[in-house]
Amino acid sequence: MDEVTPFSWPVRVYYEDTDAGGIVYYANYLKFLERARTEWLRSLGIEQDTWLTHRIGFVVRQVEMDLLRPARFNDELQVTVVVERLKRASVVFQQQVLGTDGTVLCQAQIKAACVNLGEAEEGVRAVPMPAEIIEVLKRAS
């Protein structure tokens, strides 16, 4: 199997992303990872707001994150996205946050489930991904 080149999205660390010591607050890594996944989907032609009109969305179901080194105010980071596993109703991503020298600062495994955002009485429930999305994700992984 060919190795897939990770999608990479640039992120600049703003003052608002840091704690009092100028180090990125741990929860903000989740925001960086989310932005990269969203931009990756957009680069593939999958606009999440379009699917929301069909009441289809993706929700993060599980996160495993390892913070290896700190990022600091004004750092320029690269956030990568690779599909590790694609199932009928979920996708598992491997992601990294890299420093300017390529050092891995954070690595994460994110599982996202495809859900139907039904009416309030129906609740949110897992559903198979639309075939169009699966095909695009297969080609990209």
Automatic annotation (TrEMBL):
UniProt KW keywords: Hydrolase
Any GO molecular function: fatty acyl-CoA hydrolase activity
Pfam families named in the record: 4HBT_2
InterPro entries in the cross-refs: 4-hydroxybenzoyl-CoA_TE, HotDog_dom_sf, Tol-Pal_acyl-CoA_thioesterase, YbgC/YbaW
Annotated NCBIfam families: thio_ybgC (TIGR02799), YbgC/FadM family acyl-CoA thioesterase (TIGR00051)
Family classification: Belongs to the 4-hydroxybenzoyl-CoA thioesterase family.
Protein name from the UniProt record: Tol-pal system-associated acyl-CoA thioesterase
Protein's organism: Pseudidiomarina sediminum
